[in-house]
Amino acid sequence: MDVDGVQYSNFSPEKLLPLLKEELEKAKAAKDHKKAGKLRNQIWIVTDLSHGVQTAIPKADLIPILQNLPGFNQDKPAVKKTSTVAVEDKQLKALRKKLKQIEDIKAKQAKGEKLQPQQVTKLETEDQLKAEIKELEELTQNLMCSKPAS
Question: Which intervals of the chain form a coiled coil (predicted)?
């Protein structure tokens, strides 16, 4: 696996991704937004790298993230460059859809309708959802700003 001219051996996304996703679920359950955000970022990076895509994240920011992943050892060079903006757009769309559902539930609640338990649970996730949307929008903006001119 190559990142900005640095080779990483012993990298196994097949083993690493399930571990990161499991940790993400634990962080979500614990409502640890900061950890969940970091794990989401690591998942995106590992997925991109496993598909031979170089992220648009500056090397100075990327290397510490990679060093915190289990199974990374440095060796030598080679790289492919592409943007992950489309993936983030898809994720943003899904998160915004959930936020719209929450707004609809709030409107029902304002009209005095009795809410079902799962609707109440969904309402409780609003702040977390807004934080995820903000984080993803910032990430997408950073990727778009650092995208090379064609």
Answer: 85-146
Residue 38 in contact with residue 100, Cβ under 8 Å?
no
Tell me the C-alpha distance between 149 and 137, whole Å.
21
The sign of the torsion formed by the CA atoms of 14, 20, 26, 29 equals: negative
Q: What is each CA distance from 31 to 56, 110, 119, in whole angstroms?
A: 28, 26, 18
What is the Cα–Cα distance from 144 to 148, expressed in whole angstroms?
A: 9
**Backbone phi, psi, residue 52, to 5°:** 80, 20
Helix or strand holding residue 9 (H, E) = strand 6-9
pLDDT tens digits for 13-52?
Answer: 667 778 788 888 888 999 888 888 888 888 887 787 777 7
Strand order across the 73-74 sheet? 2-3, 6-9, 73-74
Structure token digits, residue 132: 């995820």
SS3 31: coil
